[in-house]
Amino acid sequence: MESSDGEAIDKRRVHLRPVTLRDPAPVLLHLLPCEVLVNRPAPVGLFFTPAIRQGPDGLEVSFRGRSLRGEEVVVPPGLVGYVMTEEKGEVLLGKQDFSEGLQDDEQEEQELVEPPEALERDFDRFIGATATFSSFTLWGLETIPGPDARVRGALTWPSLAAAIHAQVPED
Fold it and tell me: Does this model's pTM top 0.90?
């Protein structure tokens, strides 16, 4: 299948390991307005966090010589944020049982909804939760990200979806 700009779309199936959602450790997160080409835990608490100071317009810090302004963003009520990572290494191919760690009623529900499928190398990916968060610090370059920031838009979707799918009273 080709996209409108001619690039091939990479199709994959993503499987969530439900057992990883049980008790992940809480973490402090910082969403930076830049790309860091390393994807692993970093000693943020050792270098970055102590440098954060409260300024007249919000939080301030310097990262690689650039001034950042930020504010705390709270995850909407009733929701939880998870830090998800892809499982690396060789995955057994064939039919997989994703019910490991599920309680009996959850396992019965999964059997009704999601029958095990044959897995394919390079097509199936597995992810799991490594941490949880209820808020994060959103940073902007030189200014605090405004109400039109993409992250804020994403956080309004759950309440918008609930509103448009709610039962409408008949008059």
Answer: no
Strands (E), 56-104: 58-63, 66-74, 81-86, 94-95
Q: Give the Cα separation of 160 and 155 in Å (integer).
A: 9
| Mean pLDDT of all residues in 143-155 | 82
In this structure, are residues 147 and 154 in contact, taking their beta carbons and an 8 Å threshold?
A: no
What single DSSP character describes residue 50? Answer: G
| CB contact burial 114-136 (16+ within 10 A = b; e otherwise) | eeeeebeeeebebebbebbeeeb
Nearest-angstrom CA–CA distance, 158 and 164: 10
- How far is 134 from 19, CA to CA, in rounded Å? 20
Residue 5 CB-density burial (10 A; 0-12 exposed, 13-18 middle, 19+ buried)? exposed
Q: Average pLDDT, stretch 88-110?
A: 53
Placement of tokens 């309440």 in the chain = 159
Q: What is the CA radius of gyration of the chain?
A: 21
Give the separation between CA 89 and CA 51, rounded to whole angstroms. 37
C-alpha span between 25 and 89 (Å, rounded): 23
